[in-house]
Amino acid sequence: MSSSTRTRFQHLFARSALLTAGMFLASLGIAFTTVADIGTTPISTVPYTASAISGLTFGTCTILLNFFFVAGQILVLGRRWPVTNLIQLPVGCVFGFFIDLSMRLLSGVHPANWPLALLLSVFGNLVLALGIVMQIRSKTIVQPGEGFVIAVAARFKSSFGAMKIANDLTLAAVAAALGLCAVGHVIGIREGTLVSAVMIGLFAKWIDRLANRFVSSRSAEVEEPREVDLCARATPKEPAADASQSARQESGLEA
Q1: Residue range 215-238, pLDDT digits in tens
Q2: Which residue ranges make up each domain of the chain?
Q3: What span, in angstroms and rounded, lies between the C-alpha atoms of 162 and 203?
Q4: 195: how many CB neighbours lie within 10 A of its CB?
């Protein structure tokens, strides 16, 4: 094996390790916000509600939702959707497994009062944001949920931030409708959900700025989120550039 090949392999291994560690931290953050019992994260409302209704695990329902997200990308982008993005499916399956593992690890955590529950939820948002930044900086692949938002933003020439908010609101509405229709009340959507919607993006931007202090400006340019590349391949040149720029500026992403 040549030295250049060895270096590339080591670099790929390091990026994959960063992605995996980021996914685990993100799942742990989701678990913290969920066991706080004052509302899970917006993107997790649908799988959490589906889990409570169906009896399937939280992680299993997350995996099923990821299949819908990938199908949504295909519908939005059509022939411009890169087939290589199918790798999002096994990545999403691993993430679902991590969610079940994290929920099992925190199964004994029960905050005694509302202030402690709020503190636990905010801490979960911080851990989740750290995991998100690690995934972005791995420059490998995005989660299916983020991939869907990026696809919609590129297709309709809108900002990532606006589409992210619309997606989160839609998921929360769907989760609320599922709960009301199935059991007569909303499941997993409370004040903690609103806190997560606000805090995760803020924490992610803060962590990203902090991380940039430890890398050179050249490294910061190289460590571009993977979703920028996906948009560039999936859409015509100018719209892709607009969507990519928005993603770079606003990608306080959520898992």
Answers
A1: 654 444 433 334 334 334 334 444
A2: 3-250
A3: 18
A4: 20
